[in-house]
Amino acid sequence: MENSNKKIHLIGIGGSGMSGIAEVLINSGYSVTGSDIEYNNTIKKIESMGSKVHIGHNPDNINGAEIVVYSSAIKDDNIELVEAKNRKLTVLRRAEMLSELLSLKKGIAIAGSHGKTTTTSMISTILGAAGLDPTFVVGGKVFGIDMHSKVGKGDFMVVEADESDGSFLKLKPDYCVVTNIDYEHLNYYGGIENIKSAFKDFINNISFLGFASLCADNNILKSLFPDLSRKYFTYGIEQEADYYALNIELEKEFSQFDVYCKKKFIRKFKLAVPGIHNIYNALGSITLAKELGIETNYIFEGLKGFHGVERRFQIKKEDERLIIIDDYAHHPVEITATLKAAKNWDRKIVVVFQPHRYSRMQGLIDDFCKSLKIADMVIITDVYSAGEIAIESASSLILSEKMRYTGYKNVYYVPDKKDISLNLNNLLKGGEMVIFLGAGDITKYCDDFVDSKENKKIKLQDSITIAIAN
């Protein structure tokens, strides 16, 4: 976009993806306004940068705007979106605006069902360590930067590609990383074959002069390899990959591993974030960086200095009596990865889980049962609908009953999130790790629990008995 005097309005500006774009536009000199249904710290940050943000949607909010951008969370009947179309303004989806920004740089897009945010952040950190000063847009706040984005002076732009509504196909990056493909966003795609087709097209959309970094240990992604028309390099723990890890050591607060490329030792890497899933994220980043020609020492320093992303195994409180973790995991695969990482702490694990979307729960309820059983105790609160109509057979009560019927007794259904702190205070004996899981507003109740000085106690079993009886 050539004219930085244009006024751009973002519907859903407080979301993790949209706020990053807002920050880039503001820092690039554009006049930015926005709207969202609820005030949060992200909006507070955007306002501090000089942007006007309206709480609540109203047709008048777009007055003066020439371009209106909306996120995948915005429905077609949103009154601001409808008004923008009626006024014949330029209306863009988030991915279309991201594509416009990406075209100005050497674009690197990170896609995948899981691990996108962390991998995007790792790559941005590596490029920064190499002195390449990238621009980046991430779906979470990177620790040490406290922003979703940054406008750099270098040639590279790194973005997180959202596959949830297929709009990532609007992107035409020079390079890409695909972390994995899973049974996710079935409410949009309908089935795994459509998901595979979208990811194949995404990879084949990159520049003829570029390449892809792809996880060879993910069987669904691997099945696409014969149909790819772009150059790619693979990574994984299996030695058949181009880049692979050996001698993996998983500790409670870090991990380390040796990286090889086609049987040639590169060096030992150390991560300040736990879990095998983060080793995969690092391998995807290392593969991309090495093939870009970045020196190994810069890659090492970048990863060594990477301390994670907000709500990715974020320690909110830690002492001998209690550790409280806030985590974005909302898919069974992500929950499994988070809880396996937590096992290294050798503490009793108590999970507070808020399911995200009825459609996801409906398609994966048995997998949720299996993944949550890794914990020693589970509290389940009501589904965060994200605008979906409730599905009776995919409720949190049904999930808790399913877990009980399969022999897992330490599961409790607490429909009102405001009761979570009271229930936890009643249950905890000392020495536990409490992990709040979900992509909805459960993080607020994690913060409430951290700050809680509540001494009042209620009998949890009474609440679940009443709930099940009803």
Automatic annotation (TrEMBL):
Superkingdom of origin:
Bacteria
| Chain positions recorded as ATP binding sites | 112-118
Which residues are in the Mur ligase central domain? 110-288
Enzyme class (EC, first level): ligase
Q: GO MF annotations for this entry?
A: ATP binding; UDP-N-acetylmuramate-L-alanine ligase activity
Q: In which pathway does it act?
A: Cell wall biogenesis; peptidoglycan biosynthesis
The record's annotation in SUPFAM superfamilies points to: MurCD N-terminal domain, MurD-like peptide ligases, catalytic domain, MurD-like peptide ligases, peptide-binding domain
For this protein, the Enzyme Commission number is: 6.3.2.8
Which compartments is it annotated to reside in? Cytoplasm
Q: Which residues form the Mur ligase N-terminal catalytic domain?
A: 7-104
Q: Which Pfam families match?
A: Mur_ligase (PF01225), Mur_ligase_C (PF02875), Mur_ligase_M (PF08245)
Q: Which residues form the Mur ligase C-terminal domain?
A: 311-440
Task: Give a GO cellular-component term.
Answer: cytoplasm
Q: Catalyzes what? A: UDP-N-acetyl-alpha-D-muramate + L-alanine + ATP = UDP-N-acetyl-alpha-D-muramoyl-L-alanine + ADP + phosphate + H(+)
Q: Which UniProt keywords apply?
A: ATP-binding, Cell cycle, Cell division, Cell shape, Cell wall biogenesis/degradation, Cytoplasm, Ligase, Nucleotide-binding, Peptidoglycan synthesis
- Name the residues that span the membrane: none
UniProt record, GO biological process: cell division; cell wall organization; peptidoglycan biosynthetic process; regulation of cell shape
Family assignment from sequence similarity: Belongs to the MurCDEF family.
Alphabetical list of PANTHER family matching this protein: UDP-N-ACETYLMURAMATE--L-ALANINE LIGASE, UDP-N-ACETYLMURAMATE--L-ALANINE LIGASE-RELATED
**Physiological role:** Cell wall formation.
Q: What is this protein called?
A: UDP-N-acetylmuramate--L-alanine ligase
